[in-house]
Amino acid sequence: MDITRVRIVVNDYNELVNLMLNCTKCRLHETRKHVVPGEGPLNARIMLIGEAPGETEDEEGRPFVGAAGQLLTKLLSNVGIRREDVYITNVVKCRPPNNRDPEPDEIEACKPYLVTQILMIKPQIIVCLGRHSAREVLMMAGYPERSVSSISSIRGKVFNVKIGDVNAKVLPTYHPAAALYNPRLRSIIEDDLRKVKELSNNLGRSGGGILDYI
Ligand code: URA
Ligand code: SF4
Questions:
Q1: What is the pLDDT, as a whole number, of residue 205?
Q2: Residues 76 and 155 sit within 8 Å (Cβ to Cβ)
Q3: pTM of the predicted model as reported, rounded to 2 decimal places
Q4: Side-chain half-sphere of 78: how many Cα atoms within 13 Å?
Q5: Is 108 inside a domain boundary?
Q6: Closest ligand 2 atom to Cα of 29
Q7: Cα–Cα distance between 11 and 143 in angstroms, integer?
Q8: β-pair type (46-50, 166-173)
Q9: Which of 30, 53, 80, 197 is the most exposed place for a label (fewest CB within 10 A)?
Q10: Closest-approaching ligand to the CA atom of 110
Q11: Is ligand 1 within 6 A of the CB of residue 174?
Q12: Which of 30, 110, 111, 114 has the most ligand 2 atoms within 8 A of CB, as the residue to mutate?
């Protein structure tokens, strides 16, 4: 199936955000406090995709603002990437109760938002934080599920993908929450983000983003 067929037709980004803010397409809407659509410049060249909002994100309606988010912001800054320059979102936009993994039907219900965000923002580089994000994004690009079975075997690798008219480099890494409990993962995530920074420098400022979408 061509994944872009699930794209949501909207006039602009705000309309997409409003759909997310009012969404009741899966059971997660019953327990969330705030939807977390994502944030960042709409012409960002780098897009970061996490798994699901946690408790702090659910309180604030913003992605990666809790402990894992603070670590992520620090690791980005260590390699010279400003958080304000990247677009950050998650596979599902509402917090699963008690931070359980999102269920397959919840991921499926939420997927049109992520697909539409990717098609609008047209990132040159997509950083997948954790296995769930890597699986969803690489499967969107046509990779079989078995190719994404373990994050340790694919982290730091660069996958050239085409999602609709978006050609992007996908680089999976560990989820920063995992690095809170296992500090050895911090330097690995940092190495992977350094690679992202180098790739981004090499790619230069070509490419579109929201400006050629509107
Ligand atoms: N973990 C995620 O995957 N996303 C967030 O926004 C916060 C924590
Ligand atoms: Fe809608 Fe996604 Fe929230 Fe489910 S997780 S209610 S599909 S925005």
A1: 58
A2: no
A3: 0.95
A4: 16
A5: yes
A6: 6
A7: 30
A8: unpaired
A9: 30
A10: 2
A11: no
A12: 110
**For helices 131-140 and 104-121, angle between their N-to-C axes, nearest 10 degrees:** 60
Mean pLDDT by runs of 10 across the 214 residues of the chain is 91 98 98 98 98 98 98 98 98 98 98 98 98 97 92 97 97 98 97 98 67 38
Ligand 1 atom at minimal distance to the Cα of residue 68: 8
CATH number at residue 12: 3.40.470.10
- Residue at 207 is within a domain: no
d(CA 75, CA 25) in angstroms, rounded, equals 34
**Pocket lining: 53 vs ligand 1, CB cutoff 6 Å:** yes
For residue 130, give the amino acid letter: G
The candidate with the shortest Cα–Cα distance to 183, out of 30, 36, 71, 101, is: 71
Q: How many Å is the Cα radius of gyration of the chain?
A: 16
Residue 43 lies in a domain: yes
- The range of the structural domain enclosing residue 126 comes to 3-202
Domain count, the chain: 1
Residues contacting residue 136 through CB under 8 Å, at least 6 positions apart: 49, 91, 107, 111, 114
Residue owning the nearest CA to atom 2 of ligand 2: 110
> Residue 213: inside a domain, yes or no?
no
* Spacing, Cα 38 to ligand 2 middle (Å): 13
